[in-house]
Amino acid sequence: MSAEPQVEEYVLTVEHLSAYYGSRKAVGDVSIGFGRRAITALIGPSGCGKTTLLRCLNRIHEVAFDARVEGSVHLDGQDIYAHKIDPMSIRRRVGMVFQRANPFPTLSILDNALACAGGGMKRGARNECAEKALRQAALWDEVKDKLGASPLTLSGGQQQRLCIARAVAAEPEVLLMDEPTASLDPIATAIIEELMASLADNFTIVAVTHNMQQAARVSDVTAFMLADESGVGRLIEVGDTTRVFTKPAQRKTEDYITGRFG
Amino acid sequence: MNDGLAIAGLARRRAIGTLGTLLALGCAALAAAALLAILGYVVTQGLRAINWSFLTQLPHPVGVPGGGIGNGIVGTIIIIGIATLMAVPIGLLTGIYLALFGRGVIPEALRFLSDVLSGVPSIAIGLFAYAVLVAPLKHFSGFSASFAFMMLMLPLLVRTSEHAIRSVPQTVREGALALGMSNFRATVHIVLPTALPAIITALLLAIARVTGEVAPLLFTAFGSQFWEKNPGNPMPAISLQVFTYAISPYQEWQAQAWGGALLLIVAVFILSLGARLFLRRAMRFET
User: Fold this and answer.
1) Which of residues 133-172 of A touch B (CB under 8 A)?
2) Fold for domain B55-284?
3) Bridge partners of A78?
């Protein structure tokens, strides 16, 4: 594994992280840093632990029954797995977008965008805050006339952008994206990819993707993961995206990106 | 040769298929016919008894024409109302508990007990209510009937609210948690509203189930000839009046029993219809 610091500053630093579901080890001994305002793509075949690694970064992994984490993750120098840390405070700083759009079905589009804020906001402030988030998610023009409607009236791509709006409304430092375009058509995918590039001006993005072209198109840094013989996800290589795709340092990386397996 | 075999096999399969379809259709028709026969009979018999005074007046003594089961309607509403008020919080909270923290010995035991409770005959539950609320107080009461009804409604509410909450996609709950919501807030603001139509469906079905029960009322509510609005006293109920009238030797009472039966069927029909409407709303959220 070669760690090449292209970006001077890491927002998130992962050290010797292992993640388990019960006795099954899904991720083993991963150390990696995520640069500020960079887009890092986690690539690798199914079951290589990339989603699990992502879910350790906002402590949502532990929501699953019997799940636990070893090692450390530092957010701006603070150990997010320290005893006195409330996972809720971490999740406010590290937002997440899921593989399938999961808008809250009983809330309106407006309330979805504001779901992080809770009550107590004046009407004017609410609308302003929602508009800002929806604009950031490149969704405002499509929904501004139907803010009170159910999110289920939107298309899949729009729903996913609503989920992005919902996440950025909390003004997190880091945005985790778990295969955000896996269930979308190519046009919706292109819109989200463009959106990712513009979001990178304000947020540090870590995105899991199945799609190598997508990683090559949108990311600054690419990390390649692979499960070893016993099914434990390992970090094989991380580096500047162009470099990883043109001159991979590891044989396994080369085999994967040239399509020899996976 | 091979082709011939294949075609012969096909004809046989077709014949068996048709036979199966006809058999299934016949059974369905039989079931529907039985139901329609009961419905038709109750409606024709019951409609004769139902009029405005039947719905609004007290029962008249034998031999005095007219009279109604107005007090029974009020009694049924009060008994079921109190039962619902008691059953909903207990059932819903137990369902939430089972859905969110449902692993381990205690939740499994709770599920088992709830399943057993749902299989206990209603008369046994009535007997239990008699033993704990009527016998010690030496006094029949509407409240003891509510207690028995609550016990009948609980297992249905517990299991269906657990299932309703579980069927809210885990991704929706995780989406709420990932925004930094507390477990409590995610449950109350996001998960419960999503599961609500299914829970209301279950509640309406639970109410429909106890509306026609008479066995637990025999030695709890006991019945009354008056406008009884105090659940501390013996109370009338539609199903009880149907029972009393139906086994009486007087023709005008028997006619009124049919009227009461029709009333119960209409109530259950409306509740089931409402349940279906809510269920349709619930299905809309499933992805």
Assistant:
1) 152, 163, 166-167, 170
2) MetI-like fold (1.10.3720)
3) A75
